[in-house]
Amino acid sequence: MSVNTELRAFFESRRQQIPAEVGAVMQRAARELADSGQADRALTVGAKAPSFALPSATGRSVELAELLADGPVVLTFYRGAWCPYCNIALRSLQRHHDAIAARGARLVAVSPQNPDESLSYAEKNELAFDVLSDLGCGTAVQYGLAFDLPDDLAAVYARAGIDLDRFNAGHPRTLPIPATYVIDRSGTIRWAFVDTDYTTRAEPADILAALDGLG
């Protein structure tokens, strides 16, 4: 099953459980973000990938330059472990981790949540790749992905018990647009997936095809 088939099935099963007024807030926020054109302004193929040094779930600093010294990098941005769509996407990437590694590439995932939250998620799901903390979304800003939640949607999340202030260490409103990049050893983005619709993610098969195309 493709990851987007799995995501769509989850979306359809959950949609029936969401109150109409909450659904209206979520749909309006999604429409406004899509209409903002931010996805079109995010970094894409041919751009130089901004460098970063971010803490892993275990507190180790991970630098893009060090990763690229060993081969290409698959860099994926996600909203956080509180997002069920992100969890589905990360589990799908975990299932394809060996295939990514077999192509000489490193997979890293980046979210704005604090290292403790990342560690809990990585341990629970036995992830074989680094999960990095981009507190305040500084790296996401460099990639053109960071945005602020509107007040009414932030309130919906708060009422649902999603404590973004705690998860994101005092940066509750800023999140990244979900995105995945394939970066070659020279630091150039060779493949990109950016979509403001958080219920849609990069297909692992497309990531593997992009890695195969690096030559």
Outline the fold blueprint.
Layout: H1 3-15, H2 20-35, H3 38-41, E1 53-55, E2 61-63, H4 64-68, E3 73-77, H5 84-95, H6 97-102, E4 106-111, H7 115-125, E5 130-133, H8 138-142, E6 146-148, H9 151-159, H10 164-167, E7 174-176, E8 179-183, E9 189-194, H11 204-212
Parallel strand pairs: 3-4, 4-5
Antiparallel strand pairs: 1-2, 3-8, 6-7, 8-9
Helix pairs in contact: 1-5
Strand content: 15-25%
- Compute the number of strand runs: 9
The proportion of residues forming helix, as a percent range, comes to 40-55%
Low-confidence segments: none
Please tell me the total number of domains.
Answer: 1
Strand order of the largest sheet: 5-4-3-8-9
Report the CATH superfamily. Answer: Glutaredoxin
CATH class: Alpha Beta
| Class computed from helices, strands and strand pairing | alpha/beta
End-to-end Cα distance, whole Å, is: 28 Å
Q: Please give the count of helices.
A: 11
What is the 3D form?
Answer: globular
CATH level-3 fold name: Glutaredoxin
H/E series: HHHEEHEHHEHEHEHHEEEH
* Rg value: 17 Å
Overall pLDDT confidence: 93
Which CATH architecture is right? 3-Layer(aba) Sandwich
What kind of sheet is the major sheet?
5 strands, mixed
What does this structure look like?
- The protein is an alpha/beta fold and about 220 residues long.
- About 45% of the residues lie in helices and about 20% in strands.
- The chain has helices at about 5-15, 20-35, 40, 65-70, 85-95, 95-100, 115-125, 140, 150-160, 165, 205-210, and strands spanning about 55, 60-65, 75, 105-110, 130-135, 145-150, 175, 180-185, 190-195.
- The protein has a 5-stranded mixed sheet.
- Strand 4 (about 105-110), helix 7 and strand 5 form a beta-alpha-beta unit.
